[in-house]
Amino acid sequence: MVDFQMAEHYSVDSLRRIMELLRAPGGCPWDRAQTHQSIRANMLEEAYEAVDAIDHMDMDNLKEELGDVLLQVVFHACMAQEAGRFTFDDVVDGICKKLVYRHPHVFGAAEAGDAEGALSAWDAQKRREKGQKTNADALDSVARALPALTRASKLQGKAAKAGFDWTDVSPALDKLSEELEELKAAVREGSNMEEELGDLLFAAVKVGRFVQVDGERALQGACEKFIRRFRRVEALAEGPLERMDVPALEALWQKAKEEEA
Question: How many helices, marked H, and strands, marked E, lie in the chain?
Fold first, then answer.
C-alpha cells in the first residue's frame, strides 16, 4: 500500500502525486514501463476524444476527456522529470511566458481592434520567437503529425498570408480538374499514382478554403454518410451482401441515397 491520503476533492498537485506514485518502485508495472514513444498515440487519441465531446456538445464527457488529456501532460512531464529534462512547473512556466509574449496587444503597447488583428499579432510574435526569417520557415514549422488535410489547409493559409494564392475559387476549381485528369493518366499508366492522388487531395483542400469548408470536417461528414447509407443497404438487402453482385449492390446504394433526398 502506497502512502497516499484519499480525498473528497483532488487538485492538480494530487494528480501529479498520483502519477509519481504510479511510476515509483512498487507502483503500477504498466505505468512504470511506459516511455514518451510508447504513449505517443494515447496523446492523439485523448485529444480526438475531447474534440468528439465538443462536437457533440457533451459537457459531462468533455470534462472527463479534458481530464484524460491533462493526464497525458502530467504523464509526459513526470517521465521528463525522472530523466532530469524538465518538470510540470517548467511546462506551466513556458506556456504562461508564451501567452504573455504573444499577446502584446494585452500585455504590451501594441493594439488589435478585432480578432483578425489579434491573430496577426500572435503570428508575428510567434515568427520572431521561433526565429522564422522566411515564409518557407513558417510553412516548415507546421507539425508533420497533424492529419494531412488539416496540415494542407494550414500550409495553404500561411502561403496565402504571403500573397501566394488566387483571388477567387475559379482557378482553384480548374486546378482540381487538372489534378483529376493527371490522376486518371497515372492510373492508366500504372505509375506515380500516390503522388497524383496527393496533388488531387491538396487541390481539393484549396477549393475548400475558398468556399470556407474545412476539408477534415467535410471528409468526416462523408465518412458518416457512408456508414449511414451502408447500414441502409444492409437493411434493404435480401441476404448477406457478400453473395450479391456489384450491380445489385449499386442499385441498393442508389435506393438508400434516394431515401435520404
Answer: 13, 0
Supply the pTM of this predicted model: 0.74
d(Cα 202, Cα 255) in Å, to the nearest integer? 32
Per-residue pLDDT of 221-260, as tens digits, reads 999 999 999 999 999 998 899 999 999 999 999 999 999 9
Q: What is each CA distance from 115 to 5, 81, 103, 105, 212, in whole angstroms?
A: 46, 37, 12, 11, 17
Judged by DSSP in three states, 213 sits in coil
Residue type, 100: V
Q: Band of the pLDDT at 184, cuts 50, 70, 90? A: very high
Evaluate the CA torsion angle 37, 220, 150, 122 in order and state its sign: negative
Q: At what angle do helices 40-55 and 59-82 cross, to 10 degrees?
A: 160
Contacts of 161 (CB under 8 A, 6+ apart): 123, 135
